[in-house]
Design a protein that fits this description.
about 250 residues, alpha+beta, Immunoglobulin-like, 2 domains, four-stranded antiparallel beta sheet
């Protein structure tokens, strides 16, 4: 559907993921010239999609190129596929929330499935498990990003990492994204925490630049913390927080 001018501030995610129609995209780009907050949010959504895609990508085996080149001569050439033009949507377009989810899914799927030609050389059961896990992460992240009540805050950790939290009360979930996160060092890992009235509860691990769903219940938490912990994580923080960022309202 078309969006009115008053909806401009809600279109950052759809714009970043290429889910706007041409006239909406042009109008939003004009809006970006005067809105620093939307420029920053659109950039963060683009970075999130890129990191999700990179996290889902599978490196091909070293011998894959030789096998593919050797098999080319035996592959029958198919005629080009000409798609049939699709009928116009009944309501003049796709709902923005659905568009965001589909666009994000496409960005992750493109990376995750880019090496499909070499999958035969890998263990099918492992690949199926990885695909299920990637799809579950994608579904959870896209649901939070596309939620109509999604709110965003940005922060910077003591080690220089740039962080973003997107939270949805409707989904009762929060997404944490990190960029420029230094390597934790041997035997160490980065651990996330939810601050519940001064009590820090484990909220998952993040091993480098990327995006994760915070575990636990963010509904009654006031802040997100980040610490450097022994590999595998700790039941309570053992170091001073690198970041303590208020959850978006």
């Amino acid at each position: 559907m078309k969006h009115h001018t008053t909806d401009a501030h809600t279109l950052a995610a759809a714009y970043a993921l290429g889910a706007l129609e041409d006239d909406e995209r042009r109008a939003f780009e004009e809006h970006l010239q005067a809105c620093e907050a939307c420029r920053l949010e659109a950039a963060e959504f683009k970075a999130t999609a890129a990191r999700l895609a990179a996290a889902a990508a599978q490196p091909p085996p070293a011998a894959a190129k030789a096998r593919v080149m050797a098999a080319i001569d035996g592959v029958r050439q198919l005629p080009p596929h000409i798609p049939v033009p699709a009928a116009a949507p009944a309501l003049g377009g796709i709902l923005r929330r659905r568009a965001v989810s589909l666009a994000l899914a496409a960005s992750v799927a493109a990376a995750a499935l880019g090496g499909v030609a070499v999958w035969q050389s890998q263990n099918a059961d492992d690949l199926e498990q990885q695909a299920r896990q990637a799809q579950q992460q994608l579904d959870e992240v896209s649901a939070v990003l596309a939620a109509p009540d999604a709110s965003t805050v940005h922060g910077k950790a003591a080690n220089g990492a740039l962080t973003t939290v997107v939270a949805s009360e409707q989904q009762n979930k929060a997404v944490f994204t990190a960029a420029n996160l230094p390597a934790p060092g041997a035997g160490k890992t980065y651990q996330l925490w939810l601050d519940h009235d001064g009590t820090m509860r484990p909220a998952g691990l993040i091993h480098g630049d990327g995006t994760v769903i915070l575990t636990g219940n963010p509904a009654d938490a006031s802040a997100v913390g980040l610490t450097l912990e022994p590999a595998g994580g700790s039941p309570q923080p053992t170091t001073d927080p690198l970041l303590l960022m208020t959850l978006p309202a």
